[in-house]
Amino acid sequence: MSLMNPSIREMRQELSVGEQFVVRYNRPGPRYTSYPTAPVWTDSFGPHDFEQAIAAADSKRSPVSLYMHLPFCESLCLFCACNVVIQKDKSVTPPYLAILKKEIDRIARGVSRDRHVSQFHWGGGTPTYLSPEQIEDLFSYTKERFTFAPDAEIGIEVDPRVTTPAHMQSIRKMGFNRLSMGIQDFKPETQKAIHRIQPYEVTRDLIANARQLGFDSINVDLIYGLPYQTADSFAHTVEQIVDLSPDRIAMFSYAHVPWLKKQQGSFVKFLPEGMQKFDIFRSGLLKFLEAGYLYIGMDHFAKENDELAVSQRNRTLHRNFQGYTTKAGADLYGMGITAISGIQDTYAQNFRDIPSWEKAVNEHGLATMRGYRLSADDTLRREVISRLLCHTVIVKDEISKQFGINFDKYFAPELERLKTPQEDGLVVLNEKEIRTAWLGRIFIRNLAMVFDPYLEKQQLDSKPLFSKTL
Ligand SMILES: C[S@@+](CC[C@H](N)C(=O)[O-])C[C@H]1O[C@@H](n2cnc3c(N)ncnc32)[C@H](O)[C@@H]1O
Ligand code: SF4
């Protein structure tokens, strides 16, 4: 058992909450990949604002993180809430890649060559929808236009069902060192209901291939709360995952957002809800902890010696749109449809559909659909929320010094609102710090929400915005 996990017995005890508790805390809330969250951003922030942000950021000489969105998939998984374009006919890719190259050119012009790329991530959709030749071409094109740090993290999302040994050879040869693959669940009934048939052997072989090729880190995605899952069936899936021994696991809560993704309505009758969903989560969590993985927070696990775990212990862990990261202080430049950039005190998001994105790139080089410039209060709250999610503790003095405030005065209403979670055993408050208990680490979104003043207004709107926190 690791130093950071409490004993499994203690954990079982802390997690033995009742139905009422789950109902109270399982409510709609953001995942805080950004603060303020995307619904707060405005259409009045356009490409010219983003251009200014790019110029201002370049003079700061921060490290660079690049994200490339490759939206295509061959078939639709019914649970999927990602920004995808389903297309069997692969002739859609050359025109997409041509526009993407124009966008890469424009971004590269705004990033001086003495700034180092510390992170490069390809997400989707399914980047391995592209052929190995297309992947090599796009990768080389980008590499020629930026300066990569020798130890850059270069990651790609792959779908085991469509990723061939030739893809794997190519991506490793190009320099990708991190692999992330979707699994979701091995239960056949669940796979059938979500339209994602992915035999265990296919995943096992891909992981074995990745090991042979020497990838530094292998991540797998699971989802709890899918149709037909039970606590026992999910525990069995987790046992199979533990045997495959990935370095990191993302065990996402199924985000049910049928107002955005209509196809999710098809299996709504078979979804585990409330206490049932919590039991599935709990069985997965306990299995991973028993196997020696550390719970990093917000659905993520890592092996004890993984740098995510080390950096959480040292309180140097950060979060960005791709989740937890050890690379702090980088400006993130996103390319492709829907891609998000987070540069200094601004966020910018690209158009979501290919025609609008293409038109904007052709007109301006950039395709900003909406964005946001943070106020001083936003910047302070962003730091508080980030510390809560990454370090699970907020040391009041550190924030007071960094922002020239008196924490207790500034956050008096928030401290008052934390009293109920304190009574419920989620958080421990004292003069010096706000420290999350185990239960609070699981319902961390609820604790972060206390510091988010925009929610009150958002909840007044009748339209649902966020999935539930459990
Ligand atoms: C871009 S996909 C991963 C790569 C590849 N397309 C695949 O599916 O193997 C990103 C991940 O998002 C997660 N995801 C998608 N929709 C979700 C939802 N509604 N709730 C929770 N997680 C979701 C899945 O775990 C999925 O593996
Ligand atoms: S889960 Fe992956 S493969 Fe399935 S539709 Fe979403 S992005 Fe595509």
Walkthrough of the structure:
The structure is a single chain. This protein is α/β, with parallel strands linked by helices and about 475 residues long. About 40% of the residues lie in helices and about 20% in strands. It is built from 20 helices and 19 strands. The chain has helices at about 10-15, 20-25, 45-60, 95-110, 130-145, 165-175, 190-195, 200-215, 230-245, 275-290, 305-315, 355-365, 375-390, 395-405, 405-410, 410-415, 420-425, 440, 445-450, 455-460, and strands at about 65-70, 70-75, 85, 115-125, 145-160, 180-185, 215-225, 250-255, 295, 300-305, 320, 325, 330-335, 340-345, 345-350, 370-375, 395, 425-430, 435. Strands 9-10-8-7-6-5-4-1-13 form a nine-stranded mixed β-sheet, with helices on both faces. The protein has a three-stranded antiparallel β-sheet with strand order 14-15-16, with helices on one face. Helix 9 (about 230-245) links the parallel strand 7 and strand 8. Helix 6 packs parallel to helix 8 (about 200-215). The radius of gyration is 22 Å and the shape is globular. The two termini are about 25 Å apart. The model has no long low-confidence stretch (mean pLDDT about 95). The chain binds S-adenosylmethionine and iron/sulfur cluster. Iron/sulfur cluster binds near residues 82 and 159. Iron/sulfur cluster binds next to loops.
